[in-house]
Structures are given as structure tokens and as C-alpha cells.
TrEMBL record:
Gene3D superfamilies: Ribonuclease H-like superfamily/Ribonuclease H. It comes from Flavobacterium terrigena. SUPFAM superfamilies: Ribonuclease H-like. InterPro entries: 3'-5'_exonuclease_PolB-like (IPR019288), RNaseH-like_sf (IPR012337), RNaseH_sf (IPR036397). One of its GO terms (molecular function) is nucleic acid binding. This is Predicted 3'-5' exonuclease PolB-like domain-containing protein.
Length: 237
């Protein structure tokens, strides 16, 4: 089935998220209480809500998206090319720009969206943040009423599970075992909030995000028994 899909019909993506406010004390009283209640099970007695707030970026109710990186295959003069770009900065603006990309270029029935663990994290997070900002969710992301086989998404984590639904494999581990160049050579997800709020280095985060997109594309090539991308086939636009 995977080999039957045209690579040019796949939009690869990854997102990076941070707490919506830099500090727990920046939240109003209601949000502080709601965060405490939301995280009670994860925190147990080990952390106060304020100590746990650095992880707020994993929940769409308390976090925000600071960049969405995308990549897609094209053919240029018969040569394979993988183009990568990033929407970054103001969350509402980047969500609108991302929505426009999907609606204008990846909205046809044959188009698919692909990432690692995107069904559990990226896609729901994007959809929820769009609703919070009052942005209409593109059909490719709006799964309400769709049957499982109608969902136009590929998830490399799901592909690697082979039906073993309790199994989780990180992107870093999957690239390692498949012999794909690792994207994790600078920061990791736990450092994104600090780089965003303390270093104000969104470009560093975008570069990290783009490397994940490239890694996912490489995994798809590996699963299709195709040659991996070389550096000169990757173009940042």
C-alpha cells in the first residue's frame, strides 16, 4: 500500500510547542487552578503546578505552536527534490498560513499528511489551536464523522507499530534502527521552551523542526525500500 502512494502527494510536517505564557505566575487565577487540576495525575505529590508548568506546551489548552515545518517531494528536470519550509512567529498568523497551504495545494483526495506520532499529538494540537483562534479547520485536519479508512494521514509511529498498539518508538530511536541520519543533533523537545523564551531564538527551533520533517521523509523512503535523500536533494525555501 505504501509503495502505491505517489510521494509528491504527501505533505510531511512537524510542530514545536511551548507554554502559552512564559511563567505560571503569568496565568490568571482560573487558568492556574485549571492547570493544577489538569496535571494532578501526572504531578502526583512530586511537583507543584508551578514546577510542572514547564511541560505545559504538550497541552493545547495551555500551550501554543511556535513553528510548523513542512516538506514535500517534487521533480525538477527529472531529478528528485525535497523542499522544506517553516511557518513561524505569531501563532494565529502561522496557523492561517499553514491552513492556506493545505487548502491551496494539498486538498485533493489523493493528498496525504504525514509525520511521527502526528495522529496523537500534532494534528489534534493544530486543530484545537485553530478552534481557539477561530480559524476554520481544513478538511484534511477535520476528522469529525470520518471513518478510520477515510482519514488522510500517515503516521510513521503507527506504520512501525504493525498493529501493536501499546508500542511506542521515538523518532530518534526509529531513525537509529533504520539507519537514517539522526535529526537530534542540537536541542530536543524539552529544551524548546527555554530556547524560545530565554534565548529568543526561533530560527534555531525552526531548524530543529525542519530536521524532524526530513527524518520522517527519510523513514518513508526506507519503508518503501527507496534510496535516502542526499543533502543536495534537500532544498530549504
Amino acid at each position: 500500500m505504501l509503495n502505491a502512494i505517489q510521494l509528491e502527494n504527501i505533505l510531511f510536517l512537524d510542530i514545536e510547542t511551548v507554554p502559552e505564557s512564559e511563567n505560571f505566575s503569568d496565568l490568571d487565577q482560573d487558568f492556574q487552578e485549571l492547570f493544577a487540576h489538569k496535571t494532578q495525575y501526572q504531578r502526583k505529590e512530586e511537583f507543584t503546578p508551578e514546577e510542572f508548568y514547564e511541560r505545559a506546551g504538550i497541552w493545547a489548552e495551555f500551550g501554543k505552536i511556535v513553528c510548523i515545518s513542512v516538506g514535500y517531494f517534487t521533480q525538477k528536470q527529472g531529478e528528485r527534490q525535497f523542499r522544506v519550509t517553516t511557518f513561524q512567529g505569531d501563532e494565529e498568523r502561522l496557523l492561517i498560513e499553514f491552513s492556506n497551504l493545505i487548502n491551496n495545494h494539498f486538498s485533493l483526495p489523493q493528498h496525504l499528511m504525514c509525520g511521527h506520532n502526528v495522529k496523537e499529538f500534532d494534528f489534534p494540537f493544530i486543530a484545537r489551536r485553530m478552534l481557539i483562534h477561530g480559524i476554520k479547520i481544513p478538511a484534511k485536519l477535520n476528522l469529525m464523522g470520518k471513518k478510520p479508512w477515510e482519514v488522510p494521514h500517515l503516521d510513521t509511529l503507527e506504520l512501525w507499530k504493525f498493529g501493536d498498539y501499546k508500542h511506542f518508538t521515538s523518532l530518534k530511536l526509529l531513525t537509529k534502527v533504520l539507519g537514517v541520519p539522526s535529526p537530534k543533533d542540537d536541542i530536543d523537545g524539552s529544551e524548546v521552551a527555554n530556547v524560545f523564551y530565554k534565548e529568543n531564538d526561533i530560527d534555531r527551533i525552526a531548524t530543529y523542526c525542519e530536521k524532524d520533517v526530513i527524518a520522517v521523509a527519510q523513514i518513508i523512503l526506507k519503508l518503501r525500500f527507496q534510496k535516502l535523500l542526499s543533502d543536495d536533494e534537500i532544498l530549504k525555501v
